[in-house]
Amino acid sequence: MTATEGSLTTPVALALNVLPTATKFTLAAASTTPTVGEGDALTIRAFDSYGNASTNYTGSHNLVFSGTGTGAETSPSGKAPSLSNASGTAVAFGTATAITFTAGVATVSGGANGELRLYKSGAAAIKATEGSVTTTTALALTVTAGTAASLTLTASTTIPVTTTLTSLTTTAKDEFGNTAISYTGAKTLTFTASGTGSETSPGGTVPGVINSAGTSIPFGSATAITFTNGIAAVASSKNGVLRLYKPGSASVTVADGTFTSAPLAFTVTIGVAKRVAFSGLTASAGSIGAGCFFACTITTLGNSGTVSANLMITDEYGNTVSNLGSGKSVTVTSAGTAGSTVSGSPVALPETGSAVSTTRFTYTAPTSGTYTNTLTAASSGFTSATATASK
Predict the structure, then answer these.
(1) Considering only CA atoms, which of 271, 275, 278, 263 is closest in space to residue 243?
(2) Contacts of 282 by beta carbon, 8 Å cutoff, 6+ apart
(3) CB–CB of 67/21 below 8 Å?
(4) Alpha-carbon dihedral angle through residues 368, 370, 371, 372, given to the nearest 10 degrees
(5) C-alpha to C-alpha distance for 342 and 345, rounded to whole angstroms
């Protein structure tokens, strides 16, 4: 620098070396849309307060990195965000991290000296600080989820009633527990189940899961389910509705041929009392058709043949209810060919405990000729059970 006034001047200029003292950092990333768990190389630059590159900011410096936003959080699986130091060691956010600068710039080499790894999908804003030197404008990133590595099941309830629908939600997740949004469209899944609650009901109704087309598919069979951005949710009573028809414990899993979910436990409870059913029906001759519960068929019974059974009250699917209270009974009548009789009716039902009669009715067929008789077991407030006997 020199000073001059007319002919007066500085004979020897004042020599100065203006130093751009670092007051702030800027951060840039190789990718602003990194995938979870993948290295993203940062470039860190030091500047003075006037925007000059702080070329004298050099050597090793201990920076502390931090982040805000979902993408800067610990992953659902517990993996914390980190940044590699000059030695290549991953250092967690919030901890002093040795970074080497050359003429005010730090760049990544061989995965060391500033390689960022984030493990939760979502938006993130990253900063670096050393003492009073900090990042004035955070680095904005959008972290994307990885490819599917597992499936998980959740349910609208884990204590369903035999007569109600349960909505399942199947979620595809990446290796860090983020929803794998690339797992989308129609998928073929197999739901499996174990435990008493997953068995066929006494009335013969087969449990399973309703597919995307609205068809109930038995456990163990291919089931079409549609995913949107990694999630398959129930819509219009389709696409993952679970039906369990027998009370008791049940455990349900889902698999796509590559991944199998952890089991989801259910405790199925019995529905309301609704139907009359036969219990332990026997015939003195002839043949009793399959599925003799709410409706029975007895053929070639013969003349004077007999049919006998206890009676019970069940829910919609044949599970025996309990504690009916006083004054409940079932009346059995016979209609059709003349000459048949019914004894032991009405059949009393117990007030407490299992709603199965301790006494039986007996139907006796006509003594001669061919016949067809329909037996109706009726109780007020419940759907009747029927049996057809013929010769």
Answers:
(1) 271
(2) 288, 307, 308, 309
(3) no
(4) 150
(5) 7
Domain-terminating residue out of 89, 123, 143: 143
Identify whether the C-beta of residue 266 lies closer than 8 Å to the C-beta of residue 249.
Answer: yes
- DSSP annotation of 284 reads S
Local structure of residue 86 (DSSP, 8 states): T
User: First-to-last CA distance in the chain?
Assistant: 128
Task: Note whether 64 and 124 are same-domain residues.
Answer: yes
Number of domains the chain contains: 3
Q: Are 244 and 266 in contact, with CB atoms under 8 Å apart?
A: yes
Do residues 300 and 371 lie in contact, with contact meaning Cβ atoms separated by under 8 Å?
no
CA distances 165 to 160, 221, 244, Å, are 8, 19, 8
pLDDT digits (tens, 9 = 90+) for 58-97: 999 999 999 999 999 999 999 999 999 999 999 999 999 9
Give dist(CA 273, CA 9) in Å, integer.
112
Tell me how far apart the alpha carbons of residues 104 and 45 are, in angstroms, rounded to a whole number.
6
CA distances from 194 to 4, 170, 240, 263 (A): 98, 18, 18, 10
Report the C-alpha gap between 307 and 312 in whole angstroms.
16
For residue 18, what pLDDT band results from cuts at 50, 70 and 90? confident
pTM for the model stands at 0.85
Strand segments, DSSP code E, in 34-95 are: 40-47, 59-68, 82-84, 90-92
Looking at the fold, whether 249 and 282 belong to one and the same domain comes out as no
Amino acid symbol at 69: G
Dist CA 195 CA 266 (whole Å) = 9
